[in-house]
Design goal:
alpha/beta; about 230 residues
Length: about 230
């Protein structure tokens, strides 16, 4: 599915969030900057938006991006080349549930809009915790469902009707943007998401919601001593 929508993916991200997704990513990158990190893994990197933003913000950082979709990575590599960041960002195709990296490899791991697509979220968190160095931060940005009784009905109309209709026209994939609201509803949110991080051996788990609750940033840290 993601191979099919790769050419339209960036446009749809901007369109369906009205461009606010850039601000959400900026908050995640700034959180990472305050924690301090040089070697960073971007899981479910897609077309490389997060990797590019991190490299542009954190001087001296080196990034590895991994994604299951080769077509998404192809788009990302082109963007990285155009941004003249090929010497600092490497993208690779691979399974995020079986990361091909040794233990304690990275100062930080990031995921943006990706964990809801994991077939086994608990395993995904264990893998990300495994490759983190002690003291390293995991930062997860994910779409979420607003709880407000005023916002929720409008949100449901937008995600279940408008986005799928536009997605079909732009991406030519009839399933991809129908899948989107279903995946958002299915993914654990709030404290349930933090519990999964803690079960993976991470600590200092916390979350922060944005824009009426339609997006959430989750963070956690690998203990210095285990």
């Amino acid at each position: 599915m993601f191979d099919n929508i790769a050419p339209a993916y960036d446009f749809m991200n901007r369109a369906m969030t009205l461009g606010v997704d850039k601000r959400w990513r900026k908050t995640m990158v700034n959180t990472l900057a305050r924690h301090g990190a040089e070697d960073i893994l971007d899981v479910a990197t897609g077309t490389g938006d997060v990797a590019i933003q991190i490299a542009s913000t954190l001087a001296g950082s080196k990034l590895t991006g991994i994604d299951l979709s080769e077509k998404m990575i192809e788009v990302g590599r082109k963007k990285i080349s155009e941004a003249q960041l090929s010497d600092r960002i490497t993208l690779m195709q691979g399974d995020c549930l079986e990361l091909p990296m040794p233990d304690n490899s990275f100062d930080a791991v990031t995921v943006a809009y990706g964990v809801r697509n994991f077939s086994n979220l608990s395993k995904g968190y264990r893998e990300m915790a495994r490759v983190l160095r002690p003291g390293g931060m995991l930062a997860v940005l994910e779409l979420s469902s607003p709880r407000s009784p005023i916002v929720r009905p409008l949100y449901n109309i937008y995600t279940r009707c408008i986005i799928p209709a536009v997605g079909r026209m732009v991406s030519k994939d009839s399933d991809a943007y129908t899948y989107l609201p279903k995946s958002i509803e299915a993914v654990p949110q709030g404290e349930r998401m933090l519990d999964l991080m803690r079960q993976a051996g991470l600590e200092q788990a916390a979350y922060r919601s944005f824009t009426f609750g339609v997006c959430t940033l989750y963070t956690a840290v690998k203990p210095e001593k285990q």
